[in-house]
TrEMBL record:
The protein, known as: Uncharacterized protein
Signal peptide: 1-26
Keywords: Signal
Length: 188
C-alpha cells in the first residue's frame, strides 16, 4: 500500500466513522419538509443536488482537516455522507488520476473487509463526468447500525483535495438507491 493511498484511506475511514450514529440521526431528523440540497465539492468540480427530504448536519472537523456533511432522510431511511480532505503536503493529482483512484479503491475495499465482517462488494465502476473528473464507485452490502445496509461509495480527487460520498440505504429500496446514485454521478 503506497503512502498516498494510506493517507487517502484516512479520509475514507473518517467518512465511514460516522456510520455508527447514522441510524439514530436518520430516525430523529425531521426531514420530510426539508428543501432540496445543493452539494459542491472539490472547488465546484463535483456538484450535485439531493432531492427534497434530506436534512443537512455538519460533521465535526477531524484533526487532519477532513470535513463533511451528513444528509439524512428520515422517511426513506437514507443517509448521504459527503466528506473532503486535503491530500498530504506536496501531493497533487490530476482530475482523472486512475492510479490514485484505483489505489484508493483497493485500500478502501481492504478496510471494509477488516471493519465489517459480512461486507460484500457487489460491484466497482470507473466513471468520468462530463467535466473530465474521474470517479470510482464501489457498491456493497454489510450489517451496520443493527441491520443490513446497501452502500455506494464514490471517490474523486483533484489537485490537492479528495472527496468521498457514501450513500447508505436499506437493501429493500434498491431502485430508489440506484436513482439517487445516478442523480449524484450525473451532477444533476
Amino acid at each position: 500500500m503506497s503512502l498516498l493511498s494510506k493517507k487517502a484511506l484516512v479520509l475514507l475511514l473518517a467518512a465511514a466513522t460516522g456510520l455508527g450514529a447514522l441510524n439514530a440521526q436518520a430516525a430523529t431528523a425531521t426531514s420530510s419538509d426539508a428543501p432540496a440540497q445543493k452539494v459542491s465539492m472539490l472547488g465546484g468540480k463535483f456538484t450535485f443536488n439531493l432531492p427534497k427530504g434530506f436534512s443537512a448536519n455538519p460533521l465535526p472537523a477531524s484533526p487532519d482537516g477532513a470535513s463533511g456533511t451528513l444528509y439524512s432522510n428520515a422517511t426513506t431511511k437514507t443517509v448521504v455522507i459527503a466528506a473532503e480532505n486535503t491530500l498530504p503536503k506536496g501531493i497533487s493529482v490530476k482530475d482523472n488520476d486512475g492510479e490514485f483512484l484505483d489505489g484508493t479503491v483497493a485500500d478502501f475495499d481492504s478496510a471494509q473487509h477488516k471493519s465489517l465482517p459480512d461486507y460484500n462488494k457487489l460491484s466497482e465502476k470507473s466513471l468520468t463526468q462530463k467535466t473530465g473528473l474521474g470517479l470510482r464507485q464501489v457498491d456493497g452490502t454489510a450489517t451496520q447500525g443493527g441491520g443490513m445496509t446497501l452502500t455506494t461509495t464514490l471517490m474523486a480527487a483533484s489537485g490537492t483535495r479528495m472527496a468521498v460520498i457514501q450513500v447508505i440505504s436499506r437493501p429493500g429500496d434498491m431502485a430508489a438507491h440506484e436513482t439517487l446514485i445516478k442523480q449524484i454521478v450525473s451532477g444533476k
